[in-house]
Amino acid sequence: MKLRRLATAGVLAALAAASLGAVTASAGGPRPPAPRDQSLRGLAARNGLYFGTAVDAGAYADAADPQYKSTVDGQFSTVTAENAMKWESLEPTRGTYDWAAADAFVAAAARNHQLVRGHVLAWYSQLPGWLTAGIQDGSIDGPQLRDLLHKHITDVVAHFRGRIWQWDVVNEAVSDPWETPSAIHLGGNAGSLKQKFADLLGPDYVADAFRWARAADPKALLFYNDYNIEAFGDGGPGDKTQFVYDMVKRLRAAGVPIDGVGSQGHLSTQYGNYDVLAVADALDRFTGLGVAVAFTEVDARSLTKDAKDPALDAAGQDVNARDQASAYNYHVLLQACLMNPHCLSFTVWGFTDRHSWIPGWFKNPPEGAGCLWDAGYQPKKALRTVQGDLAAAGPPMVQPRQPQKPRR
Ligand code: XIL
Predict the structure, then answer these.
(1) Is 230 a catalytic residue?
(2) Fewest C-beta in 10 Å: which of 156, 234, 324, 407?
């Protein structure tokens, strides 16, 4: 399949860099990879999958925290800038670009033989202050915003041309079922910045954003990226996955150059979990449209404190149950991805609870503990689970089952 070939072309360096680990055949079958060969990038490479993380530029550059950088460099085969490629970072002053942090990030990825997911081009959030203010106070009108977005996409994609594997061209463009009106629509809550951004640009901006990105880089894979699209619901007006599916289908039918759907995968154990086959079904339906898929921002957070029950604290007795629930959420998304040959990459949104957006974002009620490693860089149950999933996803660990004959 063409998409598969695209995904593997030009990444032999990453494969070579990943330690594949020798597997010794024995009477009992292949031995599990030795601990030194259990890097996520190495285990994922056995399945042609790229395992990624978002990178916090400050932590990566912090000499006092060397384990952050060494883990990024050693464990992952694809990286996403957590904030450095967002519009607010690239053009803080109108008309003046600051490429320094993003360029340093892309250069580090090249040194480490990592593929880059470009994040993000058309998104209502983390716009520069001057732009948000103009949208809010009405001093920037629809045609002006459209021109600004066209220029932004053209300049940014051209700047990084040839160095980006997947671009998140349009991010979080549609509403959630708890917003007003509750039928899923382009935009967000009535009156919100998300809705104003969509209204000013008009419904065609999604297609245009992909066309502008394609014009600036003919080779990057162009993604629509969103959260809460891991599985289909009832197919009705409140089904966000269905809405995104229909949108992608229309875009494809109209010849818009969209190559993939990114499912962010921000999960919380307080809501339970999906199951593997439901998520696999959603991926299958998306890839049935001829696009690739990827998990782009996976984390699985938990409630860390509950005012009604002080025992439910991050350091409390619930740690084991919570860590297992988190691990199971990672497991479900990863298994589904492994089952689909067009699931190109599995990226976590931060890998250590020491540097995670979760506690700063989900405060009421407080949540945290969503990453693979704990705040002291110790492996959590989630890490051991995804390592096991990757190892068990196929050869050489998984071989035809051998019948046993009774001994005489
Ligand atoms: C988050 C970053 O992790 C934070 O550091 C920042 O303050 C806010 O944005 N969906 C996305 C990401 O597409 O860009 C967001 O990243 C998390 C939700």
Answers:
(1) no
(2) 407
Cα–Cα distances in angstroms (integers) from residue 256 to residues 115, 213, 248, 277, in the given order: 24, 11, 9, 30
- Across the range 17-43, mean pLDDT stands at 72
Asked whether 357 and 7 are in contact (CB, 8 A), the reply is no
Q: Give the pTM.
A: 0.92
Cα of 83 from ligand 1 centre, angstroms: 7
Predicted local confidence at residue 2, as pLDDT: 41
Residue of 172, 179, 230, 367 with catalytic role: 172
DSSP per position, 148-210: HHHHHHHHHHHHTTTS-SEEEEEES-B--TTSSSSS--BS-STTSHHHHHHHHH-TTHHHHHH
Encode burial over 243-277: b for 16+ CB neighbours within 10 A, e otherwise: bbbebbbebeeeebbbbbbbbbbbbbbeeebbebe
Atom of ligand 1 nearest to the CA of 357: 3
Ligand 1 atom nearest to 56, measured from its CA: 5
Instruction: Flag whether pLDDT at 66 surpasses 90.
Output: yes
For residue 333, the tally of other CB atoms under 10 A from its CB is 27
Ligand 1 contact, 171 CB (< 6 A): yes
Q: Are 316 and 369 in contact, with CB atoms under 8 Å apart?
A: no
| 297 catalytic residue (yes or no) | yes
| CB 297 near ligand 1, within 6 Å | yes
